[in-house]
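Writing this down once: the sequence line spells out the residues, with the fold written below as integer tokens. I am pasting one below:
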Amino acid sequence: MTALHPRQPHWRAPLSILVWLVLQSMGAAASATDAAPSAELRQVADGVFVRPGQTGVLFEADNVANLGVVIGNRCVAVIDTGGSKSEGKALAAAIGKLTDVPVCFVINTHVHPDHLLGNEAFSTGQVRFIGHEKLPGAMAARGELYLRRAAEYSGGDAGVEMVAPEQTVRDEVQIDLGNRVLVVRAFATAHTDNDLTVLDEQTGTLFAGDLVFLEHLPVLDGSINGWLIEVGRLAARDFARVVPGHGPVEADWPEAAGPVIEYLEDLREATRAFIAMDGDLRSAQETITVSRPERWRLIEQYQKGNVAAAFAELEWED
């Protein structure tokens, strides 16, 4: 296991090939408002804070994802930075009001823009950016599309630069914040192919990223089988609390894993049954509905994309 300490500046990844699946399912948004996002940090444990996200469609609303802040004696770690440069600036300002300890690390839990388009606000020489080993490639593939969508919904040039990690994680690393250790763990393909979690060992707080959704319908951009495997493994572990990528800022564990697991299992079962009847994708998207819909919001915006992703994976099963 590798231990990380603050050091030299990050590098920036190039932008290239466009991908469409996730943003197509997210594209039903209205224009963003001109008001700058604000950031209110809520304490969930000693030295552990969350900027709560609201349940909303990407680019339609500010402050969509839950963002984390962990304060050590020497360093602050930020876990995800929000969906715009202004969100990142608001988060940085809120941290500055909370502590004089400098931000040394920014950890992105995955590639989706509501979690990393605020990176530039922390782009100084003392901050080290950390992500999954596959995150730079995912950012390069999607960056131009993300920035174009951000500009469209901001009414012009969003002024965002993609900031990729200089330190990538293949398995697990430890980050020393000064008498406080964070364990950053990389996962196989699940919600995406570049998911990370961050565990504050001192308080037993796990930042689960989008491996865990509550209230916001889960978004499948990786592997439905892989996601079920990985969240199932997490459910077998003990944490004092879990901060999901979306939903209430702290949740009991493993109870918080239940809704995601049940949604994915139901989606997999329904998709397999439809494929067994030689159904086509378009019909599947119109037919396969969300079980337990009372648990979820944004069903209309995301369900068809989830069915498409599940169908593409499961139709080739033996």
